[in-house]
């Protein structure tokens, strides 16, 4: 009753081994690349002992100030003169008026306050300052 294959007939089942190899390589690539993806500008943040978890990064708007004084609004470089109009443009149709500030730990206090004033003048209601979690020190 069974059907026997002759010498000239081909098998009809697909070979999935190459497909599995490709999928494993893609999985490894994504596992290596994903931790390297960092949204935003690379800034050395100050440390704080009492921090709150980060919000959803897809919806947040971030102003970053690097050590050299360069200012970035969501990875777009801006200056003090056009920061306010750019912020107003971004928040024009948003109900959530929350902005996050990342400033390099080595910046002087005056330059950070100047940027904070510009942000407040643009109509931002909530200004969050992003910090790194401070490592807990053990007492001997």
Q: What does this protein look like?
A:
This protein is of the alpha/beta class and 140 residues long. The chain has helices spanning 17-33, 80-90, 109-121; strands at 47-48, 62-65, 71-73, 76-78, 98-103, 126-129, 132-133. Strands 4-3-2-5-6 form a 5-stranded mixed sheet, covered by helices on one side. Helix 2 crosses helix 3 (109-121). The N and C termini lie far apart (82 Å). The model has no long low-confidence stretch (mean pLDDT 79).
- Beta-strand proportion: 15-25%
Main sheet specs: 5 strands, mixed
Low-confidence stretches: none
Helix content percent band: 25-40%
Q: Given the C-alpha coordinates, what overall shape results?
A: elongated
Instruction: Please compute the radius of gyration using only Cα atoms.
Output: 26 Å
**H-E string:** HEEEEHEHEE
Strand order of the largest sheet: 4-3-2-5-6
The whole-number mean of residue pLDDT values reads 79
Q: Strand tally, please?
A: 7
**Spatial gap, N to C terminus:** 82 Å
List keywords for this structure.
140 residues; two-stranded parallel ribbon; alpha/beta; five-stranded mixed sheet; single chain
Please give the structural blueprint.
Elements: H1 17-33, E1 47-48, E2 62-65, E3 71-73, E4 76-78, H2 80-90, E5 98-103, H3 109-121, E6 126-129, E7 132-133
Parallel strand pairs: 1-7, 2-5, 5-6
Antiparallel strand pairs: 2-3, 3-4
Helix pairs in contact: 2-3
Task: Write a brief structural summary.
This protein has 140 residues and is an alpha/beta fold. Helix content is 29%, strand content 17%. The strands form two sheets. It has a five-stranded mixed β-sheet with strand order 4-3-2-5-6, with helices on one face. A two-stranded parallel sheet has the order 1-7.
């Amino acid at each position: 009753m069974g059907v026997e294959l002759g010498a000239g007939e081909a098998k009809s089942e697909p070979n999935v081994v190459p497909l599995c190899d490709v999928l494993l390589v893609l999985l490894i690539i994504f596992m290596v690349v994903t931790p390297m993806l960092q949204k935003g500008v690379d800034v050395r943040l100050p440390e704080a002992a009492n921090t709150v978890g980060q919000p959803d990064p897809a919806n947040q708007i971030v102003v970053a100030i690097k050590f050299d004084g360069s200012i970035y609004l969501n990875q777009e470089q801006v200056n003090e003169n056009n920061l306010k109009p750019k912020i107003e443009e971004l928040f024009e149709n948003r109900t959530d008026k929350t902005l996050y500030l990342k400033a390099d730990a080595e910046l002087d206090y005056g330059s950070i306050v100047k940027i904070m004033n510009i942000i407040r003048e643009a109509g931002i209601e909530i200004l969050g300052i992003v910090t790194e979690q401070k490592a807990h020190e053990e007492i001997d």
